[in-house]
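Box 3.1 — From sequence to structure: CAAX prenyl protease-related protein
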Amino acid sequence: MPPHAWPRIAPFAAYMAFVVLADLLARAGWAAPSLLWLYPLKIAAVVVLLLCYRRHYAELAAGRPRWRELWLALAAGVLVLVLWLHLDADWMVMGTSPGYQPLEQGRLHWPLLLVRLAGGVLVVPLMEELFWRSFLLRWISAPDFLAQSPAAVTLRAFVVAALLFGVEHQLWLAGVVAGAVYSGLYMYSRNLWTPILAHAITNGGLGLWIIATGNWTYW
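Predicted structure (token representation):
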């Protein structure tokens, strides 16, 4: 693994480590309200790592995408959101989860809710796009991934990265579609901010829908 891969792997690995920890603690009998506080810790750990490695992210120096790409990111983010809410048949879902329910005695715990929403919009898209698109998508195509143009990514890399992104999510088919859309945006625009923006729009819209409807399992 090339040394310059770790700045893109470490924040994602920290995020997933907290997911595993939450599962282990739940199996050990920890109460669900106590486990809610792991999310702020998880986001804080990711933010610290992103800040520590910030000078390594040359791909973020590309600047603002062009207007055409901004509109594509908006359209793609909304499209993935709509599909995410509809690709939920039993065979499209792996396992079961109560989701993230920021409730205290049946009432919304607003600090936790706002941290969850902000984490999903501002932190997770940046962390995941650095790992899934900037690193993994290009690395599967070429070991020297920083020298690999997103536009030249192979079909094999595109398919494998989309499938793995889907496996990361409970709604696996929706995840595969999202991974394919975000990868396509990156390959087309060659600017990582384009899929980051689309990802943030999807997560933000999903978060607002969850809060409005109380469908916490989608979190």
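Summary of the box: Residues 3-218 form one domain.
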